[in-house]
Amino acid sequence: MRNEDTMGTQAHSAPSEKAVPCIARQPILTADESVIAYELLVRDDAEETRSKTDTDEATRATIDALNLIGLGVLCDGRAAFIPCTHAMLLMGYFSLLPPAEVVIELQDKVPDDGQVRGACEALKQSGYRVALDNFAPADRRAGLAQYADYLKIDIRQYPSAQTAALVTEYGSKSCCMLATKVENRQNFVDAKHSGFTLYQGYFFRHPERLRARQI
Question: What does CATH list as the number for 20-214?
Fold first, then answer.
């Protein structure tokens, strides 16, 4: 499988071209390994495997790329999970994107306060889906789970009994439980046994780097 796709024309670069930041995507899959969405990550450059450390800048770059290239190209018509910081949430930057095609992934440093709840309510009323990243036992964002369509849990961090308890407490028809950091078959088997219905990790696929160029 190719780990890097090329979009747009790169063969004859010109000084007037404006480069779009290198974006990587990692699939989110069902138990039968069907891809239902991609998480989008911005790399510092095409050769880096690390995500940008400035999440606000990375999110802006991702949204700019989505508006420029389109989700149909970046995500093959599937939904895009886009990391969202506290500042980006309150700025309402995601209103530039079509609600049916994106999932707003609130990072673990986003607090549970009145402003955040108001922003989440506004997103939901506008038709956006919300995910809580790195959800944990006794998570301080537990009050935000009422707005979540997806809870992402790093299954490497907790015993199976704890992750299964989270699935039992929060999983429902309106909230899908997503196991992250699934790195081998045993992780996959354990996550399914715990009740997770969606999965993400190196066991399935490493992030694919996607390059594009605005001419």
Answer: 3.20.20.450
Query: What residue ranges do the domains of the chain occupy?
Result: 20-214
Identify residue 123 by its one-letter amino acid code. L
The structure's pTM equals 0.82
Dig out the tokens for 9 from the structure: 């024309």
Instruction: Please give the average per-residue pLDDT across 160-172, as a whole number.
Output: 95
Q: How far is CA 103 from the centre of its chain?
A: 7
